[in-house]
Amino acid sequence: MNILVCLKQTFDTEERIVVENGKVKEDGVKFVINPYDEYAVEEAIRLKEQFGGEVTVVSVGPSRAEEALRTALAMGADEAILADDPALFGDEYTVAKVLAAIARQKNYDIIIAGNQAVDDGSGQVAVRLAEELGIPHISTLTKLVVEGNQVTGHRDAEGDEEIVTATLPVLVTAQQGLNDPRYPSLIGIRKASKKPLAHVTLADLGLSEEDIRPRTEIVDTFLPKPKEAGRILQGELQDQVKELVQALIQVEKVVG
Amino acid sequence: MATEQKLDNIVKGAAFLIEDTRPEQVFTPEEFTQEHLMIAETTRQFVEGEVLPNRERLEHQDWALTVELLRKAGELGLLAADVPEAYEGLGLDKVSSALITEYITRGGSFALSHGAHVGIGSLPIVFFGNEEQKRKYLPALASGEKIAAYALTEPGSGSDALGAKTTARLSEDGKYYILNGQKQFITNAGFADIFIVYAKIDGEKFSAFIVERDFPGVSTGPEEKKMGIKASSTRPLILEDVKVPVENLLGEPGRGHVIAFNILNIGRYKLAVGSTGGMKSALEMSVKYAKERKQFKTAIANFPLIQQKLADMNIRTYVTESMAYRLTGDIDKRLDLVEDLNDGRAVAKAIEEYALECSINKVYASEALGYVVDEGVQIHGGYGFIQDYPIETAYRDARINRIFEGTNEINRLLIPDMLLRKAMKGELALLPAVQAVQAELGGDIPAPQTDAPLAAEKHLLALAKKVFLFVGGLAVQKYMQALKDEQEILANLANIAIEIYAVESALLRAAKALARGDDAENKVDMVTVYTREAVGRIEGWAREILAAMEDGETLRTHLGVLRKLTAFEPVNSKVIKRRIAQRVIEAEKYVS
């Protein structure tokens, strides 16, 4: 079974976000594998352990993302592809196109990704990729069962569980609870440095800039307003309601 | 790399006291490889995922859990770093092994169980075991299937380790040594499977044995009720007519002291690395607390006196870290020259080259850790005295570091002792260096040549080395052989040597970062204030030594020389420390 895992390197969830000159500051920040993608890596390795085959991990991102790929290799993935040519960077549309071009280079039975990245949280790239490739997808999985050609996914549907079946090849995305990712062992870390990691460029993928030109533009980046202390309304219930309505209209401007 | 080139980059043990070391000759934490960082990260994840959530149970001595966690650590390879590949270990470099030690300490005193197993418990076999012993024991120790302990101390012999009373007698059939005696304060005794036990054959020949827990006659006493490191097991080991097969004698009969001293060297530098980890976590919890705790309607982190503490804690951590990894790097470079890394004796020999630096690191790191946890409690105020806050545990846990692996007093005495031995064996040109300094001191002391970054600090460091040689030279000339009885003077000389190593390690690391073009502003700030504070202390110790040796006109002349050697223009350390503190506050953790 050939498995492709799409992963993104993101800020460690413990890191504080500092915006400077309209950009998120990256100095001294600790980067990790996007936690949802870590479930994807673990699931892929478990499938490999069950059925044999190879796990390829792929990322579109700057050269620092190599660390995240190496970590996945240390966990047990077999090879890695890093699309670190800046010509390949863009929005969700771009990344899905790039990943599709990479995915077409080999026959993958299953593609696994996290259901979203903890940084921009768009949750679009994986499902766009399935669309590009013309294969079915099941998202936000908490359980995945593969039997022969049949795939059964238990998905987290806004708190309910939905059971969806599909046939290979398929793309699935991982939700928290899918598994408990392993720590890379020291022997794994040592092996990882000898596993293949390929860097690909726009030309390697036979793409043109026009093919992957982003469809969106970032106009501004800013932090949410700091939370202010709440106010407890007091007095007669009727007066409280009036005051609340006033506040919603005039202060918060959410109605009217 | 050609051997010659390798040699050029190697600084010999103790040579830092008589010559300059170049930045490119030292290893610094900025040079950790991706693999090093990944190993540190796995250790951190293991501690945060498996150890810290169980802190309470570990502190209440759930040994089954301790053993389970050690096995889990074994599965990840965290017990195998120092075991050669030939015996199913990983045979990693010492920097990797040091990083494991540093990050394990973030899990509290579980680190002691880990450290005793991988260090003093397993290494005697790694270094001094014969082929059969290594094959028999090391794979199980590397995986955690078996847990090791080290039994040297006795109720009546601590620092005086060779005064042990435990005896070994060869059985009449010549197949066994029969061991009798009691060992004290044995870490991991509650659950260890294998003990490295020192005993005197026929009451004379100090020797080491591999003793299995299952051997009849082996038992342990009750758990000691300790002040700190409560998550580690400490019990007496009792040996009553224990029949130890002769093949379990470790090394040669009567050569146990060689094993003991070599293992101590490793214990000492590992202690420095572990202290670095402890300091980082104490600083982290303290700065977070200072940002949360409000008094007078503002976070206490906004008060300059709290900031001063945070800056000082950060500086000590930086200095300790620089020293510990410099030494680890030196050891790795030496080991690079060892042809067969499976040859444990050659490995131990390479480490022994830096025995003096091991003692320096042990003393400095344990005292720096003590300082940092003490200020950490102070920042926490009354809450720092309450057991719900982890800084309280850190404070109690730190205390033992000044006592074990050779008390700081013993280590201080060892520093000048080892230096003189090296000089006498012709390994170090100490005497010519002393003579050169004495000849030079009649004239004027040249001022630093440039105002380039760190030039003044380099100058002060060079002068501090002259202070050491000047004062030390006088002491040796005056007391000759009797110097060994002048413990106060020896301790002060050790203090000066330690401080020189501290300043130099911090300085070379900053210089290396500058040369590489890194943003080294924080490092330069720290070195700027630390160097001057250190020189102040060095002057004080030197003055004490001089005043203990001479008086009248001779003393006044000597003090005049000392003043010239320790004079410097002060810097505005108030402002610099506020800057350092701001960086710590922003990062909410140690910043190098």
Explained architecture:
The complex is a heterodimer of chains A (256) and B (592). In chain A, strand 6 (54-60), helix 2 (66-75) and strand 7 form a beta-alpha-beta unit. Chain A has 2 domains: 2-199, HUPs (Rossmann fold); 225-256, no CATH class. With 256 residues, chain A is α/β, with parallel strands linked by helices. The radius of gyration of chain A is 22 Å and the shape is globular. Chain A has helices spanning 35-51, 66-75, 92-103, 125-133, 186-192, 237-251; strands spanning 2-6, 9-11, 19-20, 23-24, 31-33, 54-60, 79-83, 110-114, 137-147, 150-157, 160-167, 170-174, 197-199. Chain A contains 6 helices and 13 strands. In chain A, strands 11-10-9-12-8-1-6-7-13 form a 9-stranded mixed beta sheet, sandwiched between helices. In chain A, strands 2-5 form a two-stranded antiparallel ribbon. Chain A has a two-stranded antiparallel sheet with strand order 3-4. Chain B has 592 residues and is an alpha+beta fold. The longest helix of chain B is centred in the middle third of the chain and has 37 residues, at 256-292. The mean pLDDT of chain B is 95. The chains are: A alpha/beta (256), B alpha+beta (592). Chains A and B meet through helix 2 and helix 5 of A and helix 2 of B.
* Fraction of helical residues of chain B: 55-70%
Overall pLDDT of chain A, averaged?
94
The unreliable regions of chain B are none
Strand content of chain B: 5-15%
Question: Which H/E pattern describes the elements of chain B?
Answer: HHHHHHHHEEEEEEEEHEEHHHHHHHHHHH
User: Using DSSP, what is the number of strands of chain B?
Assistant: 10
Number of strands of chain A: 13
Helices and strands of chain A, in order, run as EEEEEHEHEHEHEEEEHEH
CATH superfamily of the largest domain in chain A: HUPs
Rg of chain B: 24 Å
What would you call the shape of chain B? globular
What is the tally of helical segments of chain A?
Answer: 6
Number of helices of chain B: 20
Largest sheet of chain B: 8 strands, mixed
Strand content of chain A: 25-35%
Distance between the termini of chain B: 30 Å
CATH class of the largest domain in chain A: Alpha Beta
Structural class of chain A: alpha/beta
For the largest sheet of chain A, list the strands in their spatial order: 11-10-9-12-8-1-6-7-13
Share of helix among residues of chain A? 25-40%
